[in-house]
Specification:
Elements (H helix, E strand, L loop, with lengths): L3 H7 L1 E4 L6 E4 L2 E3 L5 E3 L2 E3 L6 H37 L11 H7 L13
Antiparallel strand pairs: 1-2, 3-4, 4-5
Helix pairs in contact: 1-2
């Protein structure tokens, strides 16, 4: 059976060349004697039935894809957490609109043009 540790051990995950994404490589090998290997791991070698070997291979690939999705979701969550923690936190009461800043005599950035009143 495919336990989770074994599935994770057989996975080949790496970042893309431009560091723009994450790639899971699945190398599927069919041997002349009817046996199947995924990323160097024999699949279905416990049964003489070739159809069962193919089914065992598809189950293993699906488990790898599911674990890859979990890996991506964990990466997104931790990356979002890092960004959230590094971003400055502003209190709503500390923000000023352009008119409030003008009334208070504070320099106003160009995105808040002063009204001509």
């Amino acid at each position: 059976m495919n336990n989770l540790e074994y599935v994770r051990k057989c996975m080949r995950i790496k970042r893309t060349l431009n560091d723009a994404g994450t790639k899971l490589t699945i190398e599927f090998t069919y041997y002349d004697d009817g046996f199947v290997s995924i990323n160097g791991s024999p699949r279905g070698d416990y049964t003489p039935d070739e159809a069962e070997r193919w089914l065992a291979s598809t189950r293993f690939v699906m488990q790898m894809i599911e674990e890859f999705r979990n890996h991506i979701n964990k990466s997104k969550t931790s990356a979002a957490y890092k960004v959230q923690r590094s971003a400055p936190v502003f209190q709503a009461s500390a923000r000023r609109t352009g008119q409030q800043a003008h009334n208070a005599g504070v320099a106003v950035p160009a995105i808040f043009p002063r009204s001509q009143s």
